[in-house]
Amino acid sequence: MTVPRAPTTALRLAPAPFAARSLILIAPLSLVLAAAPAVAQTKAWTPPPPDADLKAALDKAAASSPDALVALADSGHADAQAYAGLLFVVGRGKIPADPPRGCAYAAKAAEQRPDAMHLRARCLQYGLAGGAPDLEGAKAAYGRAIQMGYAKSKCGLGQMLMGDTATVDRGVSLCKEAARTGDADAQLALGSAYLTGAVVARDPAEARKWYEMAAKQNPLMAARKLGQLYASGEGGKQDAKKALELWGQAEQAGDQAVCILVADQLFSDITGGRKPGPGTYAFKGGIPMADIEVVEMWYQAALERDPRPEVKTRSEYALKVLQSFKTANVSVTKKRTK
């Protein structure tokens, strides 16, 4: 098989230095709970701006010093309780996660802030407060947050309902209501539902639609799946260049599982459509050495960042093939210069 010359411009995509960026984009605490768009069940809820004491406490918490926020929360400040709840449920920087403590703060603020009610629902759903999950309690808390105007809770409740064949349609409808208002989590949930076909009829075109929306807001979660649809052509046009662009965005946002996808696509570009695997690869030269090295960089990134055994096996095999290409390239170049 003759290996075609690789399209050089398509191969100039290289993984960002691993240590040069954060894997998790951490927004200021004062913005985290308010990040989801709110749509009214009766009236949309808008998070109040933090007062001077709360702002100072949030700034200190962002610097890994939660004492001021805790003191304010313990004094009965509902907004501080809401932020302390999120802080301890998920952890932040040097502040370790303490879900039971966070859930306790969320419960205190739940009737004052719908975002805290939403967090309380998650605590109940997953048993984060300690003890067994309380699914009925979680549904009730999501419902209350919706009544208070918190759109994100629509898909929180919707995903629970999608787990029951008797209520799946209602669940999908709730997630669509949230997704249409710009809730990236709801868009992602719908994309995954239509891609897998586990709870609704599989529909790659519908999955693309929701992933397209989600990827514009959160490439960390959606761009990999959307890129795979572009690469395969499922649900719409096939576009390898677009797939690489999306995977690059996902990798920059911290998605380490995307490295092997980029590597395999670029490998395919320089081997006439072949993916790494047993067999022989005819090589007659003509591929710029720099292009081969870019593909190597992506496989090395996959080895370093993706713990899946199958990724390790494929990457190591591909690197051996690429090294043989480089050796052949040098040999061809020497013959041409004689």
Any overview of this molecule?
The chain is an all-alpha fold and 338 residues long. It folds into three domains: 1-17 and 256-338, no CATH class; 24-150, Tetratricopeptide repeat domain (Serine Threonine Protein Phosphatase 5, Tetratricopeptide repeat), CATH 1.25.40; 168-253, Tetratricopeptide repeat domain (Serine Threonine Protein Phosphatase 5, Tetratricopeptide repeat, Alpha Horseshoe). It is built from 16 helices and no strands. The longest helix is centred in the last third of the chain and has 29 residues, at 309-337. The radius of gyration is 24 Å and the shape is elongated.
Strand content: under 5%
pLDDT below 50 for ≥5 consecutive residues: which ranges?
1-12, 18-42, 332-338
Secondary-structure element sequence?
A: HHHHHHHHHHHHHHHH
Largest sheet: none
Number of strands: 0
In CATH, what is the homologous superfamily of the largest domain?
Answer: Tetratricopeptide repeat domain
User: What is the global morphology?
Assistant: elongated
In total, the number of domains comes to 3
CATH fold category name of the largest domain: Serine Threonine Protein Phosphatase 5, Tetratricopeptide repeat
Structural class: mainly alpha
Give the rounded overall mean pLDDT: 85
Number of helices: 16
- State the CATH class of the largest domain: Mainly Alpha
State the end-to-end CA separation. 26 Å
Tell me what the CATH architecture of the largest domain is: Alpha Horseshoe
What is the percent of helical residues? 55-70%
Radius of gyration: 24 Å
